[in-house]
Amino acid sequence: MDEPGEIGRRVQRMRVERGLTQKQLAHPSYTSAYVSTLESGKVRPSETALRFLAGRLGTSYEELATGRPAHLATELRLALTDAQRTLATGAADEAAVRYRGLLAEAEELGLVPEQAQARLGLGECALESGELPAAIGHFEEAERLLADEPLPRRARPLRGRAVAHLLAGELRYACYLLESAIDELGASGLADPDALVLLHAAVIGPYMDMGAHARAAHSAELALALAPQVSDPALVAGMHRQVARTFLAEGRMADADASLAKAQAIYGHLQLRTDLAHCHWMRGYVLAQNGELGTAERELRTARDMLSARRAGLYTAQVEVELADVLRRLGRHEEAAGLLAALLELGNSHGAVHAGGAHRLLGLMAEERGETESAEEHYVQALALLERSGATGDLADLCRLLGDLLRRTGRVEAAMDAYRTGLGHRAAPGTTTLGPAPSAAFRPARVSGSRWDADRAE
């Protein structure tokens, strides 16, 4: 809102242009004396007063308060919506170009909410292209612009920042961000269903990677219970994709596949290509865990091709780890090794969890060829990466592989050290090192037989 003097002069100019007296403008809610005081700049009008006067003058509150024609802001919001659609259905780089132009326009007009929306879009584009530091910067700036807004309005950039840290291999920090937001929502009484589903669905991934299956199941149950209250179908689809991971951990293959099928149907309808690719990705993973390797390969190749077409390099590289594991199990070692080598050439941009997974697979293939020194080297590199990431379940499995290798080569003490490291990370299943689990602003009825019930001791 402009200074009182500027607003007063604007009100006076519009009143005179419309041939109204101060009494006519003020009737029936205010007095002519109030309008006179306002026009002289001696009082700062409330939003209620300005909205009333804007209605009498046939203009918008925004134009009266700031001098900007209302259509400029509306057109900018429409353009931001178009850019969001481009991101959902087209290439991230194309959407990023549009968002950058719209950000400059929003900054020129001084429209803070629209600046935040453009920053959020740029962050999502950077996530897709694997530019994680840039993504974090955009999400942080969006949060800063929305600092005075209630938490539900800040949930999307906060979730984006957490996902960026997760993709960079910083699992514990991603959990901390999401858990803190969930707790804040509960403590403030702002139990917004959209925000809660967004945050609970996002935290399932890092929980699963850290071996915190009880927490993942709890978040899945909360998200599923809230889903009927959510108005955004894309959000519901994303929740179904994440919930499938907890069903998988519980051995509920049919339920996992059903959740993924629901997500695919919604994303196909909305043409959200990247998220649909993630559904194919997770379905391929489910099929691989169930031993259906041929079908799993087809799903994973579909996911990789869709992500590659979107030029989503980070996600493309990550899905290739899953595909390489399927190819290895099918006996196509050379093809699998080629995929993993390409992934490792990306350096640290793809995150420690997937780099560690690549080294683990290369170690397994080296062992199968009888190349124990090469296998040990890959296992050690994977261990260093996974210890930094906090991927507890993957780390424990890797320690077992390394310990077995060391034992077979006669290094019993070193093998025991590796086993102890793995056992240490498995000492408390269903927990993390972050302290108490986040409180729930909404608690559904307990689901009989769920993994959450089994691990309730957490």
UniProtKB/TrEMBL annotation:
<dbReference type="Pfam" id="PF13432">
    <property type="entry name" value="TPR_16"/>
</dbReference>
<feature type="region of interest" description="Disordered">
    <location>
        <begin position="427"/>
        <end position="458"/>
    </location>
</feature>
<feature type="domain" description="HTH cro/C1-type">
    <location>
        <begin position="11"/>
        <end position="64"/>
    </location>
</feature>
<dbReference type="InterPro" id="IPR019734">
    <property type="entry name" value="TPR_rpt"/>
</dbReference>
<dbReference type="Pfam" id="PF01381">
    <property type="entry name" value="HTH_3"/>
</dbReference>
<dbReference type="Pfam" id="PF13424">
    <property type="entry name" value="TPR_12"/>
</dbReference>
<dbReference type="InterPro" id="IPR001387">
    <property type="entry name" value="Cro/C1-type_HTH"/>
</dbReference>
<dbReference type="InterPro" id="IPR011990">
    <property type="entry name" value="TPR-like_helical_dom_sf"/>
</dbReference>
<protein>
    <submittedName>
        <fullName>Tetratricopeptide repeat protein</fullName>
    </submittedName>
</protein>
<dbReference type="InterPro" id="IPR010982">
    <property type="entry name" value="Lambda_DNA-bd_dom_sf"/>
</dbReference>
